[in-house]
Write a structure and sequence with these properties.
Layout lengths: L8 H6 L12 E8 L3 H12 L4 E4 L15 E3 L6 H8 L1 H25 L6 E9 L5 H13 L4 E5 H7 L5 E10 L2 H14 L3 E3 L4 E7 L2 E6 L4 E9 L15 E10 L12 E5 L6 E4 L5 E9 L3 H6 L1 H15 L7 E11 L6 E3 L7 E5 L5 H8 L3 H5 L5 H5 L5
Helix pairs in contact: 2-7, 2-10, 3-4, 4-10
């Protein structure tokens, strides 16, 4: 599957400072991770920290799937509102999902500090706003649900938002949000894991799995084998090609990056933004004084059709930006299309789809892919050990 069009921002910004070999021999490892993006890198970091022996492979160059297309808004807010999630999945699952997403932002910062990654991580306030008056009651219900469950939130009126430079009717301001460069962090995590002994192979495409006497043999398209006890699939939206259960509806999404401003405009100095529209719009600044925005989601049919819509989506997104931030002159520099997905309850999938096979999945679908992947670090050891963990119950397959 082609996950994105070519002109994404992060690889151009970072260039490619590390390369890895492709697999050219038969090897054996206790744990094999398939997928070398931010999810695979975080899971690898957890396993290496626990003293596990790990091999990681990716069929592309490392980090050149969905990670390269991520806009990396780090929020505890999930793609479904808290009050709706309580109705859909119950109080315990909903509130713990929100709280664990919030904790994941701070856990991620600790990891970044530990490996000394220069991924431009910055804490920001998160502004969840509505542009239409009819959406105010929805936003008020959400504010009430978050306030009652201990989240640090503040209600903002239209006049408050205008002072901030945002043209909107009302908003919830949350204390816990952040931004970063996901491509840089994923590379730094993998470098760290390599220094700790993990083997990494890119351009190594697994085409077949064989099962023999409690072992799994992963066969590459070049005929080499990796014999392992456990496989962890961190393949994101491409997992639809290996799963039998349908767990996600694929979408096409679109993102823009502005030219660099001399100074980042005031609304973006301390905040990130997203709104109540369906599909929602989102906005963030970068460390080099650009503004990234995205949205305009469509049903995914194929990469060619997705990419043909890019010019039309540029026009749409630029108009939406002007409506929301009329005082900022947004000059387009980069644009790209990517593939993402939505689950029925907007929550991830962790664990083993088939209890009889030692194939584990970490699938952080939706707008919280990075924070979901951090959450998965807490349950991956339990999944490998066939032991219980709350996240393996909340985010199990066949739920």
């Amino acid at each position: 599957m082609k996950l994105r069009s070519t002109e994404t921002f992060w690889p151009i910004k970072n260039a490619m400072d590390t390369s890895y070999p492709s697999l050219d021999a038969d090897i054996t490892t206790p744990v094999l991770i398939i997928g070398g993006g931010i999810t695979g890198a975080l899971i690898a970091y957890k396993l290496i920290s626990e003293g596990k022996k790990v091999v990681l492979v990716d069929k592309r160059d490392i980090c050149n799937g969905s990670t390269a297309a991520s806009t990396a808004l780090l929020q505890y807010e999930i793609d479904i509102s808290l009050h709706e999630l309580i109705e859909k999945r119950g109080f315990e699952c909903a509130v713990s999902s929100y709280k664990n997403c919030e904790k994941a932002i701070f856990d991620l910062k600790k990891i970044i500090d530990t490996i000394k990654s220069d991924c431009q991580f910055e804490f920001k306030k998160s502004i969840y706003f509505c542009s239409l008056k009819k959406d105010i009651p929805f936003l008020q219900r959400e504010f009430k649900a978050r306030k009652e469950n201990g989240f640090k939130v503040k209600w903002l009126e239209e006049t408050d938002l205008k002072k901030q430079g945002l043209n909107a009717c009302a908003a919830i301001e949350s204390e816990s949000g952040a931004i970063m460069d996901p491509y840089k962090l994923a590379h730094d995590l993998l470098k760290y894991c390599k220094q700790k002994g993990m083997l990494i192979f890119d351009r190594t495409n697994i085409t077949e799995f064989k099962y023999l006497k409690g072992k799994i043999i992963a066969v590459t398209e070049n005929g080499f084998t990796i014999t392992t006890e456990d496989i962890i699939h961190c393949t994101g939206y491409e997992s639809t090609e290996t799963l039998t259960e349908k767990v996600v509806d694929l979408k096409s999404t679109y993102a823009l990056t502005s030219e660099s401003f001399i100074e980042i405009p005031n609304p973006f100095k301390n905040a990130i933004y997203w709104n109540t529209s369906e599909p929602y719009l989102y906005f963030r600044g970068t460390s080099d004084n650009r503004i990234i925005m995205g949205g305009g989601d469509e049903e995914f049919h194929n990469a060619e059709k997705r990419d043909k819509l890019l010019h039309r989506k540029e026009t749409y997104l630029l108009k939406q930006f002007e409506k929301c931030f009329p005082d900022i002159n947004y000059k387009l520099d980069y644009s790209w299309a990517g593939t993402f997905g939505e689950t029925q309850d907007a929550l991830p999938y962790f664990g083993k789809p088939n209890p009889k096979k030692n194939e584990h999945y970490v699938l952080g679908f939706g707008g919280n892919g990075i924070t979901f992947s951090v959450m998965a670090m807490n349950s991956i050891i339990a999944s490998l050990n066939d032991s219980q963990h709350p996240d393996l119950k909340f985010y199990k397959f066949n739920r």
